[in-house]
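name: query_chain
kind: protein
chains: 1
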Amino acid sequence: MHRNSTERTIGTPHTPSANPWNIRLGLAPLVFAHTASCCVSLIFVASLYAHFHILFRESNIAQAAICVAGLSLISILFTTASFSFGYFVSFYLYTMIVGYVWLSYFSEFNYNTSLARLSAIASLLSAILPALLMRKPLSQIYAIPKRIFRHLPTAIIVLTASTVILGASYGFRVVGLAEMYKFQREIAYPGWMNYLIGITSTALIPFAFACCWTRSHRGQALLCLALSLLFYPITLNKLALFTPAWLGFVAILLKFFEERTVVVLSLLVPTLAGLVLFVAIGNAAIPIFGLVNFRMVAIPSSAMDVYNDFFSRHPHTFFCHVSILKFLDCPYKDQLGVVLAKEYQLGNFNASFLATEGVAAVGPRLAPVSSFLCGVAIGLANRMSAGLRPSFILISSAILPQVFLNVPFSTILFTHGAAILFLLWYITPRDDEEASREPGRRANFEATG
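structure:
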């Protein structure tokens, strides 16, 4: 069948065109601006959240700035590498380590911060190099028949709606953010329900939204966003409130910018917005500043500081914190987030794989080795998604980079369904004609990859 010239497919790579909506911004200036905005943001965060051990002292600012400036040379990788899922995750990890390196110069904790900084930078490089460079496609042994794939978003929507209804039978509470943690402690789901909620909300609904948005099925796309919002009353988790807004934000950015630029702007725009609002209107901006600049940007970096301090004085886990390895002789009976919460009184303090599979498991000297293995796994996800349109990969994985900053790697794969999303990418047909129009762009605009 002859394909109309306006059609596009999920699986066919494309070259850039001269469409006027394709706004070109220099990646290097954007990344440097983002690096600087993160450090400035952390200065203001310290003024509000010192009780979270996020501090700032003018006496150390020169040392911190010089070290971050050297670290920012890593950003060259983001100006030369092509977009991939690994690119997406790597930029978020880079942001986290920039924040940690900055905060480490003002840390109140008594551990070897010099060793920890070197370990963090080495761990970052060992993780992002395979994540950026492993791109060779895997041979597709099986692809979902196109006639079935066309109905897959509907099946996911039905599964998600069923999950929400089932979750509501355990409890449905519409409460404000101020009361969220009070009622969150009362929620008790069986283990299988926690997995079902995590997989549908983090992996399946973004995948279905990407399919619907790509096919210009706006009604189904909006239904995906509405269902993702309904996870909040049954989980009282900020991620449920965050998900629909974030998916829409990423999809809109893709109307105007190529994928790598969208990755950078997805962090730069919210960080700058929160910072400008706080400077302009002060404490009235705290709801936004607290959610973005503190919770989304500062906390993952601060977690590196807290984990380095704790495990400089306590035994390492040697991966016994991973649920399937609980049979090992483990010094910790509770999850790491709970262990850290009891020690520092900061709430359930989960952290990225650089902190958990790295610092907590094997310590700062061996953390780069562990991080490299996680980077290889991310690179494998690149290979499983190779051949899909970059915009489709970006939208369908939009929530995962945030999860990578706050959750151990094994939890991401299974509890949050990343392994299922990678498998879906692998078996997605590369020539699906129903998913033929690029979301929100003119027909003659071709995305860069």
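note: The CA atoms of residues 180 and 236 lie 6 Å apart.
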